[in-house]
Amino acid sequence: MMKNAGYLQLNRRPVLDEEGIPQDILELYLYGTRLCIRINELRKALRSGLSVSVERIQRNWMAYIGRSAGNARISKSGKALNIELSNGERFTVSLDSLHAVLCSRERYASVAVLPANIHGQIVQNRKITDYCPLSAREGATRKALPA
Questions:
Q1: Element housing 146 (H / E)
Q2: What is the mean pLDDT of residues 88-115?
Q3: What stretch of H or E contains 54?
């Protein structure tokens, strides 16, 4: 079973971009942190399958879009939007519930935590015995010596 990490909803208040232009965004609340995805970029990514930037929401006198916090892309199965933050945390949301929020049929959608990505870890200082048991390696050398 997936563990709930937060939710996403359509933006209800104006949020400014770098140039001071109000943007329509999808707000992500993950463990109390406010992040966003620009809706026009999200729609393009959903059509094309490319990744979209996930950005921080910061406040000064008004909410504005800060620097990048990670990326989001459609899963390999095509049934979910996977969010990977730059700190290594990964989250997912169903595309059906995402479309319901974008079409204003639902107010919010639940976001779940994905397990840590073990494929990205680099293993160093491996020994040949890690790949082949010692007994098999010795048997191969014994057969090779008499020939």
A1: none
A2: 93
A3: strand 52-59
Residue 47: both structure tokens together: 């059509």
Residue with tokens 């990205």: 120
Q: Collect contacts of 48-55 with beta carbons under 8 A, ≥24 apart.
A: 49/73, 49/74, 54/28, 54/83, 54/85
Which residue's structure tokens are 């406010």? 34
Please answer whether residues 24 and 40 qualify as being in contact, where contact means their C-beta atoms are separated by less than 8 angstroms. Answer: yes
Tell me: the pLDDT tens digits for 109-147?
Answer: 999 998 876 555 555 555 544 444 545 445 555 455 455
pTM for the full predicted model: 0.73
